[in-house]
Design a protein that fits this description.
two-stranded antiparallel ribbon; alpha/beta; Rossmann fold; 9-stranded mixed β-sheet; 11 strands; 6 helices
Length: 214
Amino acid sequence: MKSALMVWGGWEGHEPKQCVDIFAPYLEEQGFEVRVVNTLDVYLEEDYMAALSLIVPVWTMGEITSEQEKGLLAAVLSGVGIAGWHGGMGDSFRNNTEYQFMVGGQWVVHPGGIVDYEVNIINHDDPITAGLSDFAMHSEQYYMHVDPSNEVLATTTFSGEHYPWVAGCVMPVVWKRRYDQGRVFYTSLGHVAADFQVPEVRQIVERGMLWASR
């Protein structure tokens, strides 16, 4: 049986537990044994971490100790998949650049807060985005610092309404990458649990988790 670890915590504004409650049952339906915790100390359980199929971090901001970070990164380096969304993975630990290197990006600003924007699918053949069309969002539009080695599957374009100097900037919204032996999936969608009522958002995360899992 495949095993998945979901770790939630940090800033409550992103509704981490509510989001976990959406996707834990899905993973169980897909045959995963799912463990849900709200402590980063789980990353210190070396043997357990090494045996996982998938890690789903849902932890915005906060701090991670060097030992906890080492345990997490070692698991992914060895081949454990990792998949996440929005600030729960892309704005977790602002002082930890090695963690950000693993993710492939870091949130820096969301112009205008909650805004209307479009997500554009740019890879229609990848299993994560196959069959999906462009879709509209009413949520935070993440402006991120991103790794050019990411394999980008979907993007968004900033209008410049709030920050005119970034008008026309095309920003990755969904990507996948490798971190040595581990598969990494990330999407900047999913600000709060209600965002997953958009069918495309939920489907992208579900597919991304399955892709990342070993």
